[in-house]
Design brief:
Radius of gyration of chain A: 16 Å
CATH class of the largest domain in chain B: Mainly Alpha
Largest sheet of chain B: 3 strands, mixed
Shape of chain B: globular
CATH superfamily of the largest domain in chain B: Cytochrome c-like domain
Number of helices of chain B: 13
CATH topology of the largest domain in chain B: Cytochrome Bc1 Complex, Chain D, domain 2
Largest sheet of chain A: 2 strands, antiparallel
Helix content of chain B: 40-55%
Largest interface: A-B, 26 and 27 residues
Structural class of chain A: mainly alpha
Shape of chain A: globular
Number of domains of chain B: 3
Helix content of chain A: 25-40%
CATH class of chain A: Mainly Alpha
Strand content of chain A: under 5%
Structural class of chain B: mainly alpha
CATH architecture of the largest domain in chain B: Orthogonal Bundle
Order of helices and strands of chain B: HHHHHHHEEHHHHEEEEHHE
Oligomer: heterodimer
Distance between the termini of chain B: 28 Å
Number of strands of chain A: 2
């Protein structure tokens, strides 16, 4: 069973290369049986990218980490900002480019949030937000990042597991 | 969704302040420090003159800098960029190369001959059938006229001379030429500006057009204007060219940068300077 899961993860890493075009995205995703469906406003990826649930504590680190999710670069999260006094380096300096993530789980379903993390451009074509789990459709990616996703599949799930608590 | 950020609030405050100060001046009041800061054009937005300009208001990076950074720039003795300015001034009259010439041998008094130069580069250069920027022009003078070695892009010499030459246009409005000759290169620069690139998949416009004035972590995004370049960047601990800054931006979005002085970046420089039309030349500015 474990081997199957590992195999599946590998397949996903290799094959779940979410591309810019929605059609190609849908086609590829269907191939991977990710069950992507149109939500009322945005796309939704209902199943975990890894088959596992995420770890919110790890997710919090991913959100703060400047080399990983770096969600704080653009989003304020009031509940986490309160920790800034204790650990200013990690929690302070939340940016205001994107909307605050307070209450984000009330605005989007889990599947929609997952799709937004994977590739927000599917919902908002002009957004500045990077797609955190795609490897194709890029221009001039710097050597060490070539062919790689910004986040690993499980890291997306870790962040998601924290996001869904922001009600 | 447009939220009123502190920066936006500050902007309108600054506008108010400027108007009040202007009114005060007209009424014959004494010039205050604030009035001097506003009257030099750095603290006030410029309205684009070109039709179809993408910005409603053009702001120098000065506007977005912290108070202390602005003060450092404005104080002649505190501005570390002035060390390079002085070096450039010395190099202007220094004989070098097989022709035993200096810049001065041909161009005499820089205050006269170089006035306005910093406002219009990059220009179309017929022998190359493409654009040439100021650093390239200086180096071409060295290799062709002086028979001296070209300076490296990040050398103190090239930075110093570029600052010195641009400085002769201090306060003059930026005005690169957009005509039949430069248009094709401007178009390429524009396409570059709006092209998403790198693993983070952002274009210049995502930060510097759609989100200027907002915070990305602790940094305030500017319009990415070039009127202060070469700028003394606190992060670099020395001045740097706009070409170097382009590389840095590209790396930040995890894109493979182009070389300084590449056609891509010189075209981009022309386009970016066009976006900053009317902004006063500020070099050496001080930026975070």
């Amino acid at each position: 069973m474990k081997a199957i899961k590992t195999g599946l993860s590998l397949l996903m890493l290799a094959g779940l290369t979410i591309v810019a075009s929605q059609t190609a995205f849908a086609a590829e995703a269907a191939m991977m049986k990710l069950e992507i469906s149109d939500g009322p406003a945005i796309k939704s990826i209902k199943k975990s990218l890894t088959g596992k649930t995420g770890d919110p504590a790890k997710g919090e680190n991913m959100m703060a980490n400047r080399k990983k999710g770096n969600c704080f670069a653009c989003h304020v999260i009031s509940s986490l900002a309160k920790k800034a006094a204790k650990n200013p380096k990690k929690y302070s300096d939340m940016g205001d480019i994107g909307p605050p993530l307070d209450g984000v789980a009330g605005r989007y379903t889990e599947g929609e949030l997952r799709a937004l993390l994977v590739n927000a451009k599917l919902a908002f074509p002009d957004t500045i937000m990077p797609g955190f789990y795609r490897t194709k459709g890029f221009t001039r990616v710097k050597g060490k990042f070539k062919g790689k996703t910004v986040l690993k599949a499980q890291e997306v799930e870790d962040i998601l597991s924290l996001l869904v608590t922001f009600k | 969704m447009i939220r009123k950020t502190p920066e936006l609030a500050e902007r309108s405050n600054m506008r108010q302040l400027f108007k009040m100060v202007l009114a005060g001046c007209l009424a014959g009041s004494l010039m205050t420090g604030a009035a001097m800061a506003a009257a030099d054009g750095k603290s006030e937005a410029v309205t684009p003159t070109s039709k179809d300009h993408p910005l409603e208001e053009i702001w120098s990076g000065y506007h977005f800098a912290k108070k202390g950074t602005k003060e450092t720039q404005d104080n002649e003795f505190d501005n570390p960029g002035n060390l390079w300015l002085e070096q450039g001034m010395e190099l202007w009259s220094k004989v070098d190369g097989d022709e035993k010439k200096s810049c001065q041998s041909c161009h005499n008094d820089a205050a006269k001959s170089m006035k306005g130069v910093g406002t219009r580069y990059p220009i179309f250069f017929p022998p190359w059938k493409k654009l040439i920027n100021l650093e390239q022009r200086i180096n071409l003078c060295r290799t062709k006229q002086m028979k001296a070695k070209a300076y490296k892009w990040k050398s103190n010499e090239l930075l110093g001379l570029t600052i010195f030459v641009s400085r002769q246009s201090l306060g003059m409005p930026a005005a690169v030429v957009l005509d039949d000759k430069t248009k094709p290169f401007w178009e390429k620069g524009k396409a570059h500006y709006y092209k998403r690139r790198g693993q983070l998949d952002m274009s210049c416009a995502h930060c510097h057009q759609a989100n200027y004035g907002k915070k990305i972590r602790s940094n305030t995004l500017t319009q990415g204007q070039a009127n202060g370049f070469p700028t003394y960047r606190l992060k670099w601990g020395k001045p740097g060219s706009i070409q170097r800054r382009f590389k840095g931006c590209n790396k930040q979005v995890r894109a493979k940068p182009y070389k300084m002085g590449s056609d891509e970046y010189v075209n981009l420089e022309h386009y970016v300077r066009w976006r900053g039309q009317g902004l006063p030349i500020e070099t050496p500015s001080v930026r975070p």
